[in-house]
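Supplementary Methods S3. Complex input for the adenosine-5'-diphosphate-bound model.
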Amino acid sequence: MWRRVASSLSPILSSPSSRSLSRNQAAFGLIIRESFSTEISKPEEGAKSPFITFVLGGPGSGKGTQCEKIVETFGLTHLSAGDLLRREIAMHTKNGDMILNLIKDGKIVPSEVTVKLLQKELESSNSSKFLIDGFPRTEENRVAFERIVGADPDVVLFFDCPEEEMVTRVLNRNQGRVDDNITTMKKRLKIFEALNRPVIDYYKNKGKLYTINAVGTVDDIFKQVLPIFTPFQEQLKQSRHVNPKSPLVEHSS
Ligand SMILES: Nc1ncnc2c1ncn2[C@@H]1O[C@H](COP(=O)(O)OP(=O)(O)O)[C@@H](O)[C@H]1O
Ligand SMILES: O=c1ccn([C@@H]2O[C@H](COP(=O)(O)OP(=O)(O)O)[C@@H](O)[C@H]2O)c(=O)[nH]1
Ligand SMILES: [Mg+2]
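Predicted complex, serialized as C-alpha coordinates:
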Protein backbone atom coordinates (compact mmCIF):
# COMPACT_ATOMS: atom_id res chain seq x y z
CA MET A 1 0.00 0.00 0.00
CA TRP A 2 1.15 3.51 -0.67
CA ARG A 3 1.32 5.77 2.33
CA ARG A 4 2.31 9.33 3.07
CA VAL A 5 5.30 9.08 5.41
CA ALA A 6 6.12 12.68 6.22
CA SER A 7 3.71 14.55 8.38
CA SER A 8 3.89 18.12 9.64
CA LEU A 9 7.11 18.50 11.60
CA SER A 10 8.57 15.00 11.51
CA PRO A 11 11.19 15.73 8.82
CA ILE A 12 12.53 18.63 10.88
CA LEU A 13 13.10 16.36 13.86
CA SER A 14 14.97 13.73 11.92
CA SER A 15 18.48 15.22 11.90
CA PRO A 16 20.52 17.51 14.18
CA SER A 17 21.01 20.09 11.43
CA SER A 18 17.33 20.24 10.67
CA ARG A 19 16.61 20.47 14.39
CA SER A 20 18.68 23.62 14.68
CA LEU A 21 17.05 24.96 11.54
CA SER A 22 13.72 24.39 13.22
CA ARG A 23 14.87 26.27 16.35
CA ASN A 24 16.16 29.20 14.31
CA GLN A 25 12.96 29.41 12.38
CA ALA A 26 10.89 29.29 15.53
CA ALA A 27 12.99 32.15 16.87
CA PHE A 28 12.15 34.17 13.78
CA GLY A 29 8.50 33.21 13.92
CA LEU A 30 8.75 31.02 10.83
CA ILE A 31 7.60 27.77 12.36
CA ILE A 32 4.21 27.76 10.65
CA ARG A 33 5.71 28.21 7.24
CA GLU A 34 8.20 25.45 7.95
CA SER A 35 5.52 23.03 9.01
CA PHE A 36 3.61 23.79 5.82
CA SER A 37 6.61 23.56 3.54
CA THR A 38 7.83 20.25 4.99
CA GLU A 39 4.52 18.58 4.46
CA ILE A 40 5.89 16.56 1.58
CA SER A 41 5.02 12.95 1.04
CA LYS A 42 7.03 10.10 -0.29
CA PRO A 43 6.09 6.54 -1.09
CA GLU A 44 6.84 4.08 1.69
CA GLU A 45 10.31 2.56 1.57
CA GLY A 46 10.22 -0.21 -1.01
CA ALA A 47 6.67 0.71 -2.08
CA LYS A 48 5.96 1.60 -5.68
CA SER A 49 4.55 5.00 -6.58
CA PRO A 50 0.88 4.84 -7.46
CA PHE A 51 -0.19 5.01 -11.11
CA ILE A 52 -2.06 8.30 -11.39
CA THR A 53 -4.21 9.60 -14.21
CA PHE A 54 -5.58 13.13 -14.06
CA VAL A 55 -8.81 13.62 -16.00
CA LEU A 56 -9.29 17.17 -17.25
CA GLY A 57 -11.86 18.94 -19.40
CA GLY A 58 -14.46 21.67 -19.12
CA PRO A 59 -17.73 21.25 -17.22
CA GLY A 60 -19.91 18.77 -19.10
CA SER A 61 -17.12 17.54 -21.35
CA GLY A 62 -17.84 13.96 -20.24
CA LYS A 63 -15.08 13.33 -17.70
CA GLY A 64 -17.25 11.43 -15.23
CA THR A 65 -18.92 9.39 -17.97
CA GLN A 66 -15.61 8.29 -19.48
CA CYS A 67 -14.15 7.60 -16.03
CA GLU A 68 -16.89 5.02 -15.47
CA LYS A 69 -15.85 3.26 -18.68
CA ILE A 70 -12.16 3.39 -17.77
CA VAL A 71 -12.90 1.91 -14.34
CA GLU A 72 -14.98 -0.87 -15.91
CA THR A 73 -12.25 -1.76 -18.38
CA PHE A 74 -9.00 -1.13 -16.55
CA GLY A 75 -9.96 -1.35 -12.87
CA LEU A 76 -8.52 1.98 -11.84
CA THR A 77 -9.94 3.52 -8.69
CA HIS A 78 -12.04 6.59 -9.49
CA LEU A 79 -11.60 9.65 -7.29
CA SER A 80 -13.82 12.53 -8.40
CA ALA A 81 -12.67 15.75 -6.73
CA GLY A 82 -16.15 17.24 -7.24
CA ASP A 83 -17.81 14.22 -5.60
CA LEU A 84 -15.46 14.42 -2.62
CA LEU A 85 -16.32 18.10 -2.20
CA ARG A 86 -20.06 17.41 -2.55
CA ARG A 87 -19.71 14.71 0.10
CA GLU A 88 -18.32 17.36 2.49
CA ILE A 89 -21.42 19.47 1.82
CA ALA A 90 -23.76 16.52 2.37
CA MET A 91 -21.98 15.56 5.61
CA HIS A 92 -22.09 19.15 6.92
CA THR A 93 -18.39 19.10 7.75
CA LYS A 94 -16.67 22.28 8.92
CA ASN A 95 -15.83 23.22 5.32
CA GLY A 96 -19.23 22.18 3.95
CA ASP A 97 -20.85 25.63 3.79
CA MET A 98 -17.76 27.27 2.33
CA ILE A 99 -17.54 24.56 -0.36
CA LEU A 100 -21.24 24.89 -1.19
CA ASN A 101 -20.94 28.64 -1.70
CA LEU A 102 -17.90 28.26 -3.95
CA ILE A 103 -19.48 25.51 -6.05
CA LYS A 104 -22.72 27.49 -6.45
CA ASP A 105 -20.63 30.36 -7.75
CA GLY A 106 -18.50 28.14 -10.02
CA LYS A 107 -15.36 29.03 -8.09
CA ILE A 108 -12.46 26.82 -7.11
CA VAL A 109 -12.23 25.46 -3.57
CA PRO A 110 -8.91 26.23 -1.80
CA SER A 111 -6.23 23.76 -2.83
CA GLU A 112 -5.45 22.62 0.66
CA VAL A 113 -9.04 21.45 1.22
CA THR A 114 -9.28 19.49 -2.04
CA VAL A 115 -5.78 18.03 -1.84
CA LYS A 116 -6.34 16.84 1.74
CA LEU A 117 -9.53 15.06 0.67
CA LEU A 118 -7.75 13.39 -2.24
CA GLN A 119 -4.79 12.50 -0.07
CA LYS A 120 -7.05 10.80 2.48
CA GLU A 121 -8.63 8.69 -0.25
CA LEU A 122 -5.27 7.79 -1.78
CA GLU A 123 -3.84 6.77 1.57
CA SER A 124 -6.77 4.69 2.70
CA SER A 125 -7.18 2.81 -0.57
CA ASN A 126 -5.78 -0.64 -1.26
CA SER A 127 -5.49 0.28 -4.90
CA SER A 128 -2.34 1.62 -6.50
CA LYS A 129 -3.95 2.89 -9.73
CA PHE A 130 -6.09 6.00 -9.61
CA LEU A 131 -8.18 8.15 -11.90
CA ILE A 132 -8.36 11.61 -10.42
CA ASP A 133 -11.34 13.26 -12.10
CA GLY A 134 -11.75 17.04 -12.31
CA PHE A 135 -8.45 17.87 -10.65
CA PRO A 136 -6.12 19.83 -10.80
CA ARG A 137 -8.35 22.75 -11.69
CA THR A 138 -5.63 25.40 -11.32
CA GLU A 139 -1.87 25.68 -11.36
CA GLU A 140 -2.06 26.23 -7.63
CA ASN A 141 -3.99 22.92 -7.27
CA ARG A 142 -1.33 21.17 -9.32
CA VAL A 143 1.56 22.49 -7.24
CA ALA A 144 -0.24 21.78 -3.95
CA PHE A 145 -0.86 18.16 -4.99
CA GLU A 146 2.79 17.73 -5.93
CA ARG A 147 3.91 19.22 -2.65
CA ILE A 148 1.45 17.58 -0.29
CA VAL A 149 0.94 14.19 -1.94
CA GLY A 150 4.38 14.03 -3.50
CA ALA A 151 3.29 12.31 -6.71
CA ASP A 152 3.16 13.17 -10.40
CA PRO A 153 0.56 11.89 -12.84
CA ASP A 154 1.61 9.20 -15.35
CA VAL A 155 -1.16 10.18 -17.76
CA VAL A 156 -3.25 13.33 -18.18
CA LEU A 157 -6.43 13.01 -20.23
CA PHE A 158 -8.04 16.12 -21.66
CA PHE A 159 -11.59 15.85 -22.97
CA ASP A 160 -11.76 18.62 -25.53
CA CYS A 161 -15.33 19.77 -26.09
CA PRO A 162 -16.87 22.91 -27.64
CA GLU A 163 -18.54 25.25 -25.17
CA GLU A 164 -21.97 24.99 -26.82
CA GLU A 165 -21.96 21.22 -26.41
CA MET A 166 -20.83 21.47 -22.78
CA VAL A 167 -23.64 23.93 -22.00
CA THR A 168 -26.26 21.65 -23.57
CA ARG A 169 -24.97 18.64 -21.64
CA VAL A 170 -24.79 20.42 -18.29
CA LEU A 171 -28.26 21.91 -18.61
CA ASN A 172 -29.60 18.41 -19.32
CA ARG A 173 -27.52 16.62 -16.69
CA ASN A 174 -30.46 16.27 -14.33
CA GLN A 175 -28.53 15.29 -11.23
CA GLY A 176 -29.93 18.11 -9.10
CA ARG A 177 -26.56 19.85 -8.89
CA VAL A 178 -26.54 23.44 -7.59
CA ASP A 179 -24.09 24.45 -10.32
CA ASP A 180 -26.01 23.02 -13.29
CA ASN A 181 -27.68 26.26 -14.34
CA ILE A 182 -26.80 28.74 -17.06
CA THR A 183 -25.55 31.50 -14.71
CA THR A 184 -23.06 29.27 -12.91
CA MET A 185 -22.15 27.48 -16.13
CA LYS A 186 -21.07 30.75 -17.78
CA LYS A 187 -18.82 31.48 -14.80
CA ARG A 188 -17.41 27.96 -14.85
CA LEU A 189 -16.50 28.21 -18.52
CA LYS A 190 -14.61 31.45 -17.87
CA ILE A 191 -12.81 29.93 -14.91
CA PHE A 192 -11.98 26.86 -16.97
CA GLU A 193 -10.31 29.00 -19.66
CA ALA A 194 -8.49 31.24 -17.21
CA LEU A 195 -7.34 28.69 -14.63
CA ASN A 196 -7.55 25.16 -16.02
CA ARG A 197 -6.12 25.90 -19.48
CA PRO A 198 -2.66 26.69 -18.03
CA VAL A 199 -2.64 23.27 -16.31
CA ILE A 200 -3.49 21.60 -19.62
CA ASP A 201 -0.67 23.54 -21.31
CA TYR A 202 1.72 22.56 -18.54
CA TYR A 203 1.13 18.85 -19.11
CA LYS A 204 1.23 19.30 -22.87
CA ASN A 205 4.71 20.77 -22.53
CA LYS A 206 5.71 17.86 -20.31
CA GLY A 207 4.53 15.35 -22.95
CA LYS A 208 1.96 13.81 -20.60
CA LEU A 209 -1.21 15.20 -22.18
CA TYR A 210 -3.57 13.07 -24.27
CA THR A 211 -6.22 15.19 -25.97
CA ILE A 212 -9.46 13.45 -26.82
CA ASN A 213 -12.13 14.83 -29.10
CA ALA A 214 -15.08 14.74 -26.69
CA VAL A 215 -17.81 15.10 -29.32
CA GLY A 216 -19.58 11.93 -30.44
CA THR A 217 -21.14 8.97 -28.73
CA VAL A 218 -19.80 7.79 -25.39
CA ASP A 219 -18.48 4.64 -27.07
CA ASP A 220 -16.79 6.54 -29.90
CA ILE A 221 -15.03 8.72 -27.38
CA PHE A 222 -13.98 5.72 -25.34
CA LYS A 223 -12.41 4.22 -28.49
CA GLN A 224 -9.94 7.11 -28.37
CA VAL A 225 -9.27 6.52 -24.68
CA LEU A 226 -8.53 2.78 -24.90
CA PRO A 227 -5.17 2.94 -26.76
CA ILE A 228 -3.84 5.59 -24.40
CA PHE A 229 -3.56 2.99 -21.65
CA THR A 230 -1.98 0.28 -23.84
CA PRO A 231 1.63 1.33 -23.11
CA PHE A 232 0.85 1.10 -19.40
CA GLN A 233 -0.69 -2.36 -19.45
CA GLU A 234 2.08 -4.01 -17.43
CA GLN A 235 1.62 -1.54 -14.59
CA LEU A 236 -2.15 -1.72 -14.78
CA LYS A 237 -2.23 -5.51 -14.77
CA GLN A 238 -0.76 -5.49 -11.28
CA SER A 239 -3.72 -3.58 -9.90
CA ARG A 240 -5.60 -5.43 -7.18
CA HIS A 241 -8.84 -3.92 -8.40
CA VAL A 242 -8.63 -4.98 -12.03
CA ASN A 243 -11.94 -6.11 -13.41
CA PRO A 244 -11.75 -9.75 -14.55
CA LYS A 245 -13.23 -8.67 -17.90
CA SER A 246 -10.38 -6.24 -18.48
CA PRO A 247 -8.49 -6.80 -21.74
CA LEU A 248 -5.33 -6.18 -19.74
CA VAL A 249 -5.79 -9.28 -17.60
CA GLU A 250 -3.99 -12.35 -18.92
CA HIS A 251 -6.35 -15.27 -19.33
CA SER A 252 -5.07 -18.81 -19.27
CA SER A 253 -6.79 -20.73 -22.03
N1 LIG B 1 -20.54 11.75 -25.47
C1 LIG B 1 -21.62 12.27 -24.90
N2 LIG B 1 -22.63 12.71 -25.66
C2 LIG B 1 -23.74 13.26 -25.10
N3 LIG B 1 -23.91 13.41 -23.77
C3 LIG B 1 -22.92 12.99 -22.96
C4 LIG B 1 -21.73 12.41 -23.48
N4 LIG B 1 -20.93 12.09 -22.45
C5 LIG B 1 -21.58 12.47 -21.33
N5 LIG B 1 -22.78 12.99 -21.64
C6 LIG B 1 -23.77 13.53 -20.70
O1 LIG B 1 -23.40 14.90 -20.46
C7 LIG B 1 -23.56 15.22 -19.08
C8 LIG B 1 -22.21 15.63 -18.51
O2 LIG B 1 -21.36 14.50 -18.50
P1 LIG B 1 -20.35 14.24 -17.30
O3 LIG B 1 -19.72 12.93 -17.54
O4 LIG B 1 -21.04 14.48 -16.01
O5 LIG B 1 -19.30 15.42 -17.60
P2 LIG B 1 -18.24 16.14 -16.66
O6 LIG B 1 -17.90 15.18 -15.57
O7 LIG B 1 -17.10 16.46 -17.55
O8 LIG B 1 -18.93 17.37 -16.18
C9 LIG B 1 -24.16 13.99 -18.41
O9 LIG B 1 -25.57 14.15 -18.36
C10 LIG B 1 -23.78 12.85 -19.36
O10 LIG B 1 -24.71 11.79 -19.33
O1 LIG C 1 -10.61 20.14 -7.83
C1 LIG C 1 -11.74 20.65 -7.78
C2 LIG C 1 -12.87 20.03 -8.33
C3 LIG C 1 -14.07 20.66 -8.26
N1 LIG C 1 -14.19 21.86 -7.63
C4 LIG C 1 -15.48 22.53 -7.50
O2 LIG C 1 -16.53 21.63 -7.76
C5 LIG C 1 -17.28 22.03 -8.89
C6 LIG C 1 -17.80 20.83 -9.63
O3 LIG C 1 -16.72 20.04 -10.06
P1 LIG C 1 -16.95 18.69 -10.87
O4 LIG C 1 -15.63 18.16 -11.29
O5 LIG C 1 -17.84 17.80 -10.10
O6 LIG C 1 -17.75 19.26 -12.11
P2 LIG C 1 -17.81 18.74 -13.62
O7 LIG C 1 -16.66 19.36 -14.37
O8 LIG C 1 -17.74 17.27 -13.58
O9 LIG C 1 -19.12 19.28 -14.12
C7 LIG C 1 -16.33 22.95 -9.66
O10 LIG C 1 -16.98 23.88 -10.49
C8 LIG C 1 -15.64 23.67 -8.49
O11 LIG C 1 -16.49 24.64 -7.92
C9 LIG C 1 -13.08 22.48 -7.09
O12 LIG C 1 -13.17 23.57 -6.56
N2 LIG C 1 -11.89 21.86 -7.19
MG1 LIG D 1 -17.88 15.36 -13.50
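DSSP finds eleven helices and five strands in the chain. The chain has two domains: 1-47, 51-237.
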